[in-house]
Amino acid sequence: MAGKNVLKLYVTGQTPNSQRALRNLENILNNELKGLYELKVIDVLERPQLAEDDKILATPTLVKILPAPVRKIIGDLSDKEKILLGLDLTLEKEK
Amino acid sequence: MIKMAKKLEKVPTGVSGFDEISHGGLPRGRTTLVSGTSGSGKTVLAAQFLYKGIVNSGENGIFVTFEETPMDIIRNTKGFGWNIEKMTKENKWAFVDASPDDTDNVAVGQYDLGGFLARIEYAIKKVRAKRIAIDSVSALFTHFQDPGIIRHELYRVGARLKALNMTCIMTAERPTEEGQISRFGVEEFVSDNVILLHNRLNGRGERERTIEILKFRGSGHDSEEAPLIVGGEGMSTYPRPKPQLRGKGSTQKISTGIKGLDELLAGGIYKNSTTLVTGASGTGKTVTTLHFVMEGAERGEKCLMIEFEESPGQLYRNAFSFGWNLKEHEKKGVAQLICHYPEDLKAEQYLRMIQALVIKNKSKRLALDSLSALQRIYGEEKFREFVIGLNAFLKMRNVTSLFTNTTNQLLGITEITETHLSTITDNIIILKYVELGGEMRRLLSVLKQRGSMHKKELMEYEIGPKGLNILGPFEGVENLMSGSARKVEIRFDEEEAEREFMKESTKGRI
After folding, report:
1. I need a labelling partner for B9 at 20 to 30 A (CA). Which of B107, B197, B429, B471 fits?
2. CB-nearest partner of A57 from B109, B116, B121
């Protein structure tokens, strides 16, 4: 895969859901997808216009822009298999 | 010390008529749920609430859209003459766009609607909004799979909006016209104020929209369903006028414009009374109307004439042939002529139009020719509402009115009571044809005049060069009202006359 892809995680301040999502995601990125993705954490309270642009309703929401298609995964990301499936990354993982 | 509860302030919606039945509008700082089946006008109501808030009250608004895109809403309301795009550029109107996009949503674990709430608050701050519309909350339930979370989150959104003193409309989808108020039972946790929009098929296969306030907690409202129309400059409702709006009677008499008729009426008709002129086609109802209008105009009383039977050209010509320059009076502003096809507008719209014109022109006389044209179009119930509504309004404004009614029967007696007209009219004047000695003659009679004596004689009249001219009483004849009169002394075969007349009439104008 050429270049780094960006994952955006939208959170609301320091809510337990947000913190859990961040922990879970960092875990996956560090252990399963080493170096493949760059993570941007966006707090909707601080950057509401970005939330508007990405049409974010729920928090936490993980947005994958590339590779297409755009995917949104909402929730505290507590199920690793589902995350990888949601990101279309099962194949990548097997490689 | 006991604190007096402050009377709940209301926010005008700008939906004409609705602010009357809601006693001023929506409760300030509260959320009102607007529930209705698809096509009942929820989105228009929500948008109009914001649009009129900006135009009439200087209160900016946020539109949260779940179904249509902001572009759709801008385009769909252009027809009403609204320029929402301009308002967004002027930071008076902001969209929170939650319309569907083509991304997939997967839920993994716990979430809340923090993003949604943050966007709403951001938009509110951005345009310093006082009003917000969320269209529709039902979409949230289909968008997210967990109704428990959505209920909880909607409750939180409502509480936050209340804390910000926002006046809010939330729309909700109603599955059917009967049964539950909204899908997912939204009304139970979202709001103390519920409005229903109905969209039903009537007996004649037409769509009829109405609006009904189901509840306003701690605040007054009317409970009847009011007709609703979407078109023109947006949405309007047409509540029935309240019976207490009846005006007081007058003791002052004014002229009908026909000298002989004034004599029969013991000096004319009372100011602010309602007169019905009823007769078959060609008996002179429009001429009587013109007399009434010209008399007023010449005295400098503002007159309004609503004409459903003839074109302006015809009417000017008719008036001119009797020596009246109606156009001149129009130019001076004392007379106003409105010619319409009765099919052009719905009954409620005509009522609104006439009310607006009377108020604008400060009309003192109103003539409507003819009521039967409207009756033909609207059906009994709508027609009755129209007549009662118009009459109550005219009484309240102290307007003297004259309506005409075309009877189908050329001869004989017509049941006026059947048409609901007799109870609301103060004076009834009958024009009719009678056959007498092989000739068609014309007969005028005052059937009733409320609150005054009147002559009950049957008068003969003609339509002469100066209009309707009363010649004098029919003498020496009887059975006039049946249509086929006979001289008292002469034996007369009624059946023969009837046959004769039928023969005549098939050749003639009937």
Report:
1. B197
2. B116
Can you give the pLDDT at residue B488?
58
The pairing of strands A61-64 and A71-74 is antiparallel
Distance CA B167, CA B54 (A): 13
- Residue with tokens 């993570």, as numbered in its chain: A39
Q: Which residues of A touch B102 (CB under 8 A)?
A: 69-70
Q: Which two tokens stand for residue B108?
A: 């993994």
- Tell me the per-residue pLDDT of B117-149, one tens digit each, with 9 for 90 and over: 999 999 999 999 999 999 999 998 888 888 889
Tell me: cis bond preceding B219? Omega within 30 of 0 counts: no
Determine phi and psi for B60, rounding to 5 degrees.
Answer: -75, 160
CA B298 to chain centre: 30
| Window 99-128 of B, Cβ < 8 Å to A | 101-119, 121-123
How far, in Å, CA of B404 to CA of B282, rounded? 12
CA distance B330 to B316: 11
For chain B, give percent helix, strand, coil, nearest 5: 35, 30, 35
* B308: number of Cβ within 10 Å: 22
For the cut 50, the answer to whether the pLDDT of residue B510 exceeds it is no
Helices and strands (DSSP H and E) totals, chain A: 4, 4
The helix (run of H) or strand (run of E) holding residue B461 is strand B459-464
Question: For residue A81, how many C-alpha atoms fall within 13 Å in the half-sphere facing its CB?
Answer: 0
Is the CB of B145 inside 8 Å of chain A's CB atoms?
Answer: no
Reduced to 3 states, what is the DSSP secondary structure of residue B314?
Answer: helix
DSSP assignment string, B65-100: ESSS-HHHHHHHTGGGT--HHHHHHTTSEEEEE---
CB B199 within 8 A of CB B178: no
DSSP B225: -
The residue of chain A with its CA nearest to that of B104 is A71
Q: How far is B128 from chain A (nearest CA, A)?
A: 16
Residue A89 · residue A33 · CB < 8 Å: yes
Run of H or E including B21? helix B18-21
Q: Quick one: which of B31, B22, B20, B77 has its CA closest to B54?
A: B77
Instruction: Provide the edge-to-edge strand list for the sheet that holds B31-36.
Output: B93-97, B60-65, B129-135, B167-173, B31-36, B193-201, B207-215, B226-231, B234-237
B119 contacts in chain A (CB < 8 Å):
44, 48, 51-52, 56
pLDDT, tens digit, 9 for 90 and up, residues B73-123: 999 999 999 999 999 999 999 999 999 887 777 888 899 999 999 999 999
Inter-axis angle of helices B147-163 and B114-127, nearest 10: 20
Question: Are B466 and B453 a contacting pair, CB within 8 Å?
Answer: no
**N- to C-terminal Cα distance for chain A?**
12
Maximal CA-CA distance, chain A: 39
* Dist. CA B367–CA B469, nearest whole Å: 20
What backbone phi and psi angles, to 5 degrees, belong to B184? 70, 10
Paired residues of A6 in beta bridges: A38
Report which secondary-structure segment, H or E, holds B434: strand B427-436
Task: State the Cα–Cα distance between residues B118 and B215, nearest whole angstrom.
Answer: 30
